[in-house]
Amino acid sequence: MPTEKKLKVCLVSISLATGGLERSCAMLSQMLEGKGHEVHLVVLNDEIDYPFSGKMFNLGKFKSENDTLIKRLLRFRKFKKYLKAEAFDVIIDHRPKNNYKRELFYAKWLYNGFNVVYVAHNSKKSRYLTENPEAFSKICSRNLLNVAVSQYIEDEVLRKEGIENSVTIHNAFDPSWGEDASELPQILKNKKYILSYGRLDDAVKNVSFLIEAFSESKVWKNDIYLAILGAGQDKEMLQALAASKECSGNILFLPFTKSPFEIIKNAHCVTLTSKYEGFPMVLVESLSLGTPVVSLDIISGPSEIIQHNVNGLLIAEGSLSLFAKALREICFNEVLYQTLKQHTKSSVEKFSMQAISKKWNQTLQDAIR
What is the overall mean pLDDT for the chain? Predict the structure, then answer.
């Protein structure tokens, strides 16, 4: 059997804060270092919330309030010098790819001469394949590899644009992450609550749909609450919508926390109502903590995680009445609920850091060999 090569790897991300993409990049640094590779991280913004492994090169620290084009170019020159000085075996880029000219700059100048892997986290083509997918696909086809975080993204986003050097590696969760010593907020103690957590960007996360479905479900008449955890541009709008409902007293808004574990563990269920996702880690994280899930069957992700009536409820149509019915079912059908709860943790073992790190390691070994 060939000896495994220990690689010098550079991970690139916008930041290591706020979102699932950033958390998965931080986690990949831990997984690759755990496999014996030398890991470096380059972040473009000075925002670091998630634990990581390896050496950090924080380009965000060179930003100023008056961030001119010249200053940005000088930062990229530092970036280029760093890449050349370190002579990486492979660069793994997690950034969104939504501007073709920018990606041409990265490919032709910044990454020129390196083995590059792009990680596609988004199922919306314009968020990953830029406004010029035909031209950008040619850049991707010259990469060492393109990694999709869901099978849908590989099949329907990458390969449909002719990007054949693609593979699916799902995002991972840390089996020990729920051991974090966080506390349940006082406002949730002794309450039965449905949970939604994540960025409050309604154009994507569609939290307004959840508020409408919760209102229509009438479960709040049985002293059940809806907890909405997170921060974002639409928080005030969503609070105003909640305040307009008869059930407003049963809708609770909680601030973003880096340690949501106790809140997730103690939820009756966790919901996902997004319009689109890449690979929704809220579902995997919740199931890993033993909390069943209720999700719309949107493209990319939920159907690769949820088995309907086994570990959660997967709602095929984006219908308020069907989602409201699912909320009633998971709240009041105790036999079903216990069945779902019984299968939560075992259903996501294939997404553990141990399993996913093996896949990443083998994929890189095969690609570089």
Answer: 94
**Alpha-carbon gap, residue 60 to 285, rounded angstroms:** 29
The answer to whether the Cα torsion of 333, 336, 341, 345 is positive or negative is negative
- Backbone phi, psi, residue 227, to 5°: -105, 125
- Return the pLDDT at 126: 78
Q: Give me the pLDDT at residue 178, please.
A: 61
Model pTM above 0.90: no
Cα 309 to Cα 112, 283, 292, 321, 337, distances in angstroms: 49, 15, 10, 18, 9
- pLDDT, one tens digit per residue, over 95-128 is 999 999 999 999 999 999 999 999 999 888 877 8
Single-letter residue type at 116: V
Cα distance between residue 286 and residue 269, in whole Å: 8
Kindly state the tokens that stand for 174: 């840390």
Please write the tens of the pLDDT for every residue from 176-219.
Answer: 766 666 789 999 999 999 999 998 999 999 999 999 999 999 99
Q: How far apart are CA 4 and CA 124, in angstroms?
A: 36
pLDDT tens string 123-145: 888 778 999 999 999 999 999 99
Question: What does residue 123 show for φ and ψ, rounded to 5 degrees?
Answer: -90, -10
